[in-house]
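Entry 14. Ran structure prediction on the chain below.
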Amino acid sequence: MAVRAVLFNKPYGVVSQFTPLGRHPTLADYGIPPGLYPAGRLDHDSEGLLLLTGDGTLQNLLTEPRYRHPRTYQAQVERLPDDAALESLRRGVVLRDGKTRPAVVALLGTEPAFPPRTPPIRFRKSVPTAWLELTLTEGKNRQVRRMTAHVGHPTLRLVRVRIGALGLEGLAPGTWRPLGEPELRALKKAHGTIRLQSLSQADSERYPPNYPRG
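Output, structure tokens:
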């Protein structure tokens, strides 16, 4: 049976495409089955979960902004964010391309057990670092990095750890696994529910209360 979707743990420095781009390694270097394409992307300097599929319906559910599917990241940032910085991230910050949607943001008490990055982050003895977990429902360009920089805490390392309910557990950097049919059905069901809620919200915004729709 053909593989319909895979989860890939993208290493640092890999671009989220199959065609060559300068000296960067690409997805073509990792033996991913043919006919699958990224549903969304990760920048070359970000790491973690990338979902690839040849299913157009699933692609649309995962990439159409109005469906607001959740993606969770863990970010190592410069210095320790205070409560005001965390609250700003939660409420949304104003970037060049508009205000970000409200996000779930938490300061992690321990450093995640990720393998060392190659190359390592820049390290300065005089500048401590902290780890944040952020769950977003939109995908503006380099959004997490721009959000943390906006509140004074530049991101040094960024790892996507979840796409919806699908997690990074058991996937070493540079490896992938196929999604089983139960996972695909659950993903479509969850995001189909998000889609219906989104369409209902869009409809309510389009028409004023008590507007005749018959």
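The domain at 5-203 is CATH 3.30.2350.10 (Pseudouridine synthase). Will compare against last week's run tomorrow.
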